[in-house]
Amino acid sequence: MVAMSSRPLDEPVLRIRPRRGFASLNLGSLWTHRELLQRFTGRDLTLRYRQTALGVIWVVLQPLLGAGAFSFVFGAIAGFSSSGGTPYFVFAFAGLTAWGLFYNVLTRASGSLVANAPLVSKVFFPRLILPCSTVGSSLVDFAVALVMLAVLVLIGGASTGWALLTLPLWVAVIIAQALGIGVLLSALMVRYRDVQYVLPVASQLLLFASPVAYTLAAVSHRGRAWLQVNPLTGVLEAFRWSTLGGQEFPVSALYSAGWAVVLVLGGFALFARMERQFADVI
């Protein structure tokens, strides 16, 4: 005798399947939880300079001191020159302004999950919000430094022309590269705390392997070929092209833009794959 199911034949069947492709990234959750994203960004800005004597002045002071050090070491001692007749100090400050945006997004995003371990382990919300919220605070720091750069450019007499209109594009490429790597490292840091010790060393190596304190023209032909493999090289050159002028458009910036897309998609995809384990292992 065959047992009959008590479920009506016309009752709908619910099938739960994992998301695939771009849907697995769940990027729509960032917009749905945008208020939470804004709160995390505001909290980060509030806490960053609390109990510091100079406060937000450090945002300008850090690249100024760095540009001064680079001017002495690379300009006075090593004899490096800038492009287009721009004073070397302004040249170095522009490079450090772009580098500072990349570095801040990268390091803050990388440590965002571990820094908020109690929230990750006890409260349900889209974890992607934490690394993405660091972009807002990093942009505020960048905007302050960019104003100082504009003052230095006016004093130095540089002329950028229409190239300045492309600046938002290069800023977006820098953020995309840093966020793509930072999101991936934040997921890895949950399981492997070694990442937080390797990252500062790797960042220092990347700083000197990128045209922050020098131009590609100052490097040998063989060294230039290696530097152009670096995804940051093109966008750093393009950033200076748009803010300082005096040079041809760096075609390698398109290579940097392509890498930005790859890093964002790859970093977000791996983050989505590892996210379900965060609460258990953090």
Automatic annotation (TrEMBL):
Major place of residence = membrane
The keyword Transmembrane helix is assigned to this record: yes
Bilayer topology annotation: Multi-pass membrane protein
Domain ABC transmembrane type-2, residue spans: 54-274
Which PROSITE patterns does the UniProt record give?
Answer: ABC_TM2 (PS51012)
GO biological process terms, semicolon-separated? lipopolysaccharide transport
Instruction: Give the keywords, sorted.
Output: Cell inner membrane, Cell membrane, Membrane, Transmembrane, Transmembrane helix, Transport
Q: Where are the transmembrane segments?
A: 53-80, 86-107, 128-155, 167-190, 197-217, 253-272
Q: Write out the GO cellular component annotations.
A: plasma membrane
Q: Tell me where in or outside the cell this protein is found.
A: Cell inner membrane
Matching entries from Pfam families are given as: ABC2_membrane
Tell me yes or no: is Metal-binding among this UniProt entry's keywords. Answer: no
One Gene Ontology term of the molecular function aspect: ABC-type transporter activity
Write down the PANTHER family for this protein, in alphabetical order. INNER MEMBRANE TRANSPORT PERMEASE, TRANSPORT PERMEASE PROTEIN
Q: What is this protein called?
A: Unannotated protein
Q: Which organism is it from?
A: freshwater metagenome
Q: What is the lineage of its organism?
A: unclassified sequences, metagenomes, ecological metagenomes
